[in-house]
Structures are given as structure tokens and as C-alpha cells.
Amino acid sequence: MTILETDRPGSEVDSGADALTLGRQVRERRIALGMTLEQLAAAVDRAPSQLSAIENGKREPRLPLLRALAAALGVTVDELLLDEAPNERAALEIAVERAQRGTVFRSLGIQPIRVSKATSDDTLRAILGLHQEVERLHSERAATPEEARRANTELRTEMRAAGNYFADLERAAAELLRGAGYSGGPVSQQMISTVAEKLGFQLHYVSNVPHSTRSVIDRRNGRIYLSSNLPSRDARAPILRALASVVCGHEEPRNYGDFLRQRVEANYLAGAVLLPEEATVSVLQEAKKQRRISMEDLRDAFGVSYEMAAHRFTNLATEHLELPVHFMKAHESGTLIKAYQNDGVRFPSDALGNLEGAMVCRNWTARTIFAQPDRFNPWYQYTDMAEGGTYWCTSRVEKAKEGLYSVSVGVRFDDVKWFRGRETPHRSKSFCPDERCCRRASKELTLKWQAAAWPEAATPTSLLAALPTGTFPGVDSHEVYAFLEEQEQRS
């Protein structure tokens, strides 16, 4: 514990202890010595009212007074500045006082109670419990779709400014690999198990993982639970995403911004381990030298999915190859699922600037690929944009339980010379967001069918659903806790 280094008059205390904790330390030590407030006030030459304000956490003592208090109480300044409550009762009082001074409590318009010796522990616990529930409900109501989209937009802006590259996560991944003895090539399932073991976790494959989760990590017993139905070739990424909470020091998310950031960091760390920075950059630099950069080759070199290879290329291309790029994942319906860019391409977005959920132009590579009969080979295409010039993209169709989706990586026309597939004759034009580009039917078809057509919309089940709530949005905590309890009792 440290205190302010200067001794000049008027200096304030600078420590980890807040005013409430410091006040309770003073009060408890005074009472332990059998001193009255008036006696302590006389010992430090201050008015009792001043000390009362300090003990109630309403005023912080300046450094000279803090030293005088420590001397009068027979302790050191460091002991008064301990950032822990002196006992359980004091901790409870501090929690209630802090809650009553918070913005949520003040917004209720309720007069705070005076916490005194006569206030029972049960009363304090009841007040604290009620406040915590009100705070939880307040947070859930604040988590509107607009707030979630705004948080997502802010995160994407931050990622774009960093070139979608996070040096701290790259270092963390490299350290994990060194600890597991990685020496090059694809990262094996056994090596991922070693990484988990080094971090103090055992892998457990079970048939009843809660349906609302991909994995469940039990920090108390050092276990990671994954579905036994998970294909072995895909097991590495879920394990690493689960371990990311430990490696990155994640705490329970306070809001959607925290939740989204943690998800991005978990995916990034998984990619950085499975496609190690040094080895991946070496492969890409050689491919650039040969003017044959290819997502398929990167995928095959490290034994990962096409999406992960494309995503990882997006992380490293600008930082190490001086290639601004963009990445897209789009559903066959045309809905944009995920997108990153630092090459100036204009993605579709809503009024808040959010990308996910927007409709991709029918003329973009991410959409035209669905019309191609050959799903085995990649689809290459140039697209002349209304704004920003011409872009070249490579795309591939993947399959998921939600249907088909495309994964695309693109660059500006000036940078296509480094990629395989640049000779493609396929070319299109896009004028979106102008609706005349691809969203409005021709005059002839409109006149013929407008009055005769009556389609029934295939409304998504999530259209009118509330935004998922909870500490981890969409996760059934009752189901998760019951699952962990069952697993613990079995062992």
C-alpha cells in the first residue's frame, strides 16, 4: 500500500482505499481502544464533527491529519489505508452505503437510511439484496437492441483503427504455444490439450452440455466441459475460446460492450494459437513474393476451417503485409453476419452505423457466389463500386445449422496483384445503397405483379423476441449451474 509521496500542506490521500473503507478502519480501531469520538478528536486537535464525517466516509482526511490519526490509534498509515473492511459487519455497512450513493439508487428517489449500530445485519442484507436486484433489472432494460448495436459499432471502429490486429493477444498466444513446446506446422489437438493442462484445466467431453452454451468452464474444479458430439477436427477452437476467459482475465461482463469485446478476444486468441503469428506470416510473405496469396493454401497449411484462415489473414495482412483488406460473412438470405475492414470499402449498415443484420448488395461477391454451380472451387470477382473504386474478392460457401453462408476476403484493385485468382473475368457493378441497384424490381415487373402478388413472409422467430438478457446474454444460468452441480457430484 502506498501513500502520496509529497508532504506539502493540503495534499490529499492517494491510495487504493476509498473514503468509506478508510472511515470504517478509523472507527473500528477507535472503538477497539475504547476511545470516544470526542477523545480522538481532542488527540488530533480536530472537531468531533470533522472526525464523524471521516468515519462515515463523507470526507477524506488530508495527509497530516491521516498521520495524526494513525499515531493516536497506535497504527501505521499503511494499516489505515488497507483496502479491506476491518470485519464482516463493516463490509456490509460499506456495501450498503456505497449502494445508496450510487446512480441507480438515487434515480429511485428513495430517501437513504442512516446506517447505525442499531441497524441489524438482516436489514442491511435485505437492502443490499433489493438494490442488487433493481440494478440487475435496470441493466437488462438498458440493454436495448440500439444499445447493443451501438456497442458493436464502437468496437468495430476500434478494431478498424488497429488494423484488426491486437499485439497483446498475439503475445499471449505465442506464450501459450511456447509453454506447450510448439515448434512449427499445424497445431495438433494434443498440443491444445497440453495448453489446457498448463493452465490447470482438464478436458471433459459430455453429452449434456447446456443447450445455450458452446462450452462451460468450471474454474473451481479446473475443468472444461465440451460436447461429446463435437467433431475432433473442430475441438481445438472451442477449447481455446473457453480458455480465453482465463488467459485474458475476463470477468463477468457488465454490459453488452464487455460481452462483445470478450467474444472478439476469445475468437482472436483461438485464431492466433491455431495459426501462430510467426509461422503464418512466413507462409503469407512467401505467398506474396510468389504473387499467389490464397485463403485455401493458408487453410491447408494449418489445418483449420476456411473461415478461420480468412479471419486470421484479416488480422495479419495490414500489420505484416501492408495490405489493407476487408472480411465478410454473409448468410444465403443476404444478411451480413460479420464484417471487418480497413481498406475503405463501404459495407451496408443501419442508421446507427451497425453492420450486422444489414442486407448485402446482390452484385457483391458475397452474394453472387450462391448462384454458382461449382461450390468446390473459390469464386473470384471484381466489383466496381459507386464509391471507392473497384474491389476484388475471393469467396467460398460454407454450411452451418442455420443454412449456407459465404466467407469473403477482398482488397482494393491496386493490391490484387498479390493474389491468386486475379485473372478472373468475372465483374459486376454495385450502386448500393441506391435501391435501384438491386433492391427494386424493374418497372415492367412492378406493373405486372404489384397488385397480384401477396407473399407470406418467412418471419424469423427472433424478429419480435426480446434481446437476450443475463450476465452472459442468451445463456440459461439455471441450466448451467445445475449442470456443474451434477458434474461435481458425479466426480
What does this structure look like?
With 491 residues, the protein is of the alpha+beta class. It has 19 helices and nine strands. The strands form two sheets. It has a six-stranded mixed β-sheet with strand order 5-4-8-7-6-9. It folds into four domains: 19-80, lambda repressor-like DNA-binding domains (434 Repressor (Amino-terminal Domain)), CATH 1.10.260.40; 88-142, no CATH class; 160-274 and 461-491, Orthogonal Bundle (Arc Repressor Mutant, subunit A); 303-440, Beta-Lactamase (2-Layer Sandwich), CATH 3.30.450. Helix 9 packs across helix 13 (256-274) and helix 10 (167-180) packs across helix 13 (256-274). It starts with 18 loop residues before the first helix and ends with a helix.
Structure, briefly:
The chain has 19 helices and 9 strands. It has helices spanning 19-32, 37-43, 48-55, 63-73, 77-80, 88-100, 103-107, 121-142, 145-161, 167-180, 189-198, 236-247, 256-274, 277-289, 295-302, 306-321, 365-368, 443-449, 477-490; strands at 202-206, 216-218, 223-227, 326-331, 336-341, 379-385, 390-400, 403-412, 427-430. Keywords: DNA-binding.
